[in-house]
Amino acid sequence: MDEPEPGPRPGFSRAAVTVLAVTAVVAVALDQWVKWLSTENLTEGEPVRILGGLIYLSLLRNSGAAFSFGSGYTWVFPVITLVVIGWITYMATKLRSLPWAVALGLVLGGALGNLGDRLFRAPSPFHGHVVDMFSLFGPYAEYFAVFNIADACLSVGVVLAVLLELTGRQRDGSRLVRKKAEKK
User: Where is the protein localized (predicted)?
Assistant: First the structure.
């Protein structure tokens, strides 16, 4: 049986919220910089092979999610992103855990990075196509979806959040402890 440690602390920690914010800002800045570099230096249809073909830099504009899933419903992605941003903002009001701050900051930064594309890139607001550029093992998503820094931040943030949940670490800084079954 799982029980929280005695006395979880209420409220938020300034340090945790600062880590969340800084992580998100760095993720967005890096994502937007790499997208700018890609649109300025790569040409669609002309992938660049690096690391012996482990990675290809392939400039693509994606109207959907991974593997262009949902490309006919581009407007849905900004709406989902706004819900995620609202949820993370709510979670920040109780945040006291630095590892959770990093996880939520990565998710927030990734969400904001792709939201910027959806809002401000062609063809139109709320229908913008996300700039993707990293393809693993093949130039055009033959083995894995073509992705960008925002996608990577989202993925790493979600994996970190799942690991934190599985290990019992709570957003308020407490930790679930397993009670050993009593022997009869």
Answer: Cell membrane
Amino acid at residue number 56: Y
Considering 2, 31, 117, 132, which one is annotated as catalytic? 132
- The answer to whether 49 and 140 have CB atoms below 8 angstroms apart is no
Q: What is the pLDDT of residues 36-73, one digit of tens each?
A: 999 999 999 999 999 999 999 999 998 866 555 656 66
CA 138 to chain centroid, in Å, comes to 23
What is the structure's pLDDT at 153?
A: 98
φ, ψ dihedrals at 111, nearest 5°: -65, -45
- The model's pTM: 0.86
Retrieve residue 57's tokens: 């830099």
- Sequence-distant (≥ 6) Cβ neighbours of residue 68 within 8 angstroms: 62
Torsion of CA 147, 152, 155, 161, to 10 degrees: -170
Q: What is the pLDDT of residue 22?
A: 98
Which tokens hold the place of 85? 């941003």
Tokens for 76? 């849905």
- Is 151 catalytic? The answer is yes
SS3 13: coil
CB 107 within 8 A of CB 25: no
